[in-house]
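ping. complex inputs:
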Amino acid sequence: MALIEMNQLTRAFGAFTAVKTLTLQVHEGEVFGLLGPNGAGKTTTIKMLTTLLEPTAGDAQIADLDVVKQASMVRRIIGYVPQLLSADGALTGYENLLIFAKLYDLARDSRAARVREALHFMGLDEAGNNLVRTYSGGMIRRLEIAQAMLHTPRVLFLDEPTVGLDPTARKNVWERIQDLRRDYGTTVLLTTHYMEEADALCNRVAIMHRGECAALGAPSELKAALGGAEITLDDVFAHYTGAELDSGGSYRETARARRTARRLG
Amino acid sequence: MKLLEQGAPPDGWAKAAPIPQNILEQAGDFIRITLIVAELEVRKLAHDATDLVVRAIQPALWLIIFGQVFTQIRAIPTGDLSYIEFLAPGILAQSVLFISIFYGIAIIWERDLGILQKFLVSPAPRAALVMGKALSAGVRALSQAVIIYLLAFAMGVQINWNPLALLGVVLVVFLGASIFATFSLIVACIVKTRERFMGIGQVLTMPLFFASSAIYPIAIMPIWLQAIARVNPLTYLVDALRTLMLRGELDMGRISIDLGVLMIVMVVMIWLGARMYPRVAM
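pong. complex structure:
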């Protein structure tokens, strides 16, 4: 069953079309990866699906709910971890979670227990009462995922979940994501430009290039389609995006990504 | 935690945030979210309140230096009041304005971080998120009010300690902070970057301040400035504070007009802010 449906989804900013007539389906319970270089339209797609941005044409449904017309219903069943750093450094990890538990109106009697459970699940028991500004990058990311999972959403959107993390922290985040899928049956849609991330996590991937879907399938299928045992997902990626060294990614985006990386590092 | 076998979490998908069914539940939802957003601010201030202390320096300087000098030279006609008494409520209004008018910077900062996006993706009504921000600014402004009251008292201002008058001041401070913080939020949603906001913030603050009765009575202004002062919400804020803060007969008619104007402006601002808020994340 398709949990997320995108039909001819399009978003233009002035003369620039960030996402062009994107038609995709994400199945219930899978980890789906949107791959592509900077400026390929991955974040814009996620923003439309999470109701932050209205499409200029086309439509999308999550669990048969329209992301524009039924936006407030959609918001109840999704969780979102932005690419940027979204935990509040001036609060403790516990407080960050508590505020969201309240925001999503989790039952008062089980709220504190649920928050503790989420901290435990993400391996943050001891750090719970420390200010988030003292956390490492990997801890912040895990806290953010915990925050987005408190209300047990059906779909979790992760925008570049491991950008700026060191290899150990990255592996740890991957494991948490796989646990979520196993224990909660959460459908995950993530964007990444790390090929090994897509290989390790995703059941299926769509490679985006200039706002369009250039290739779609399981990582193994995409590799097989290009033939040869030596083929890596990197080669597949390079094949479909023309291996442009520098495509897209404005000054502002770069500044933002570097800032995020610095804060996480 | 083996939930997949049951197909859904124990309490079912999406039961976390029940949809408010009628106007009463919607109002309850609105108030709940507003208080949560304000709670967030209080928790932050509880961890680190240095900002509030630093912020109190400026109004203190105004009262101590500007106030004392102008009380000495009697250059400004203030009727029965000494100049320092005339000035104290004006400086309270000023610090409400100054602490709120740059609130938009915090909004842009939260957008740049990604915190704001997470709130917008939650089912919380936009107006409640904006109202919560307004209330947060009120909490900050209230801390300034406490400091200004203590200073004014130390400088010999005849303060009205009637609990009802004090309660009135709290209400007026919250209203004022809400208005200017939401105004600031709207500007932030239009300009979207910190650099541009800083420029515009400076340009807006000074005219708002000088075209009000904060440091001199409207009567001594040129006619054109008087006209601006009469549509400036800060004038009504100053007027309400002057009536409530100082000892004397409470003019109920006047205070009702002030409160009425401030409330209408606040509702319009929140409504506008709620419409603009999602734009800052686009």
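Chain B touches chain A at residues 1-4, 7-9, 11, 13-14, 16-19, 32-33, 36, 39-40, 43-44, 47-48, 112-115, 117-124, 278, 281-282 (CB under 8 Å).
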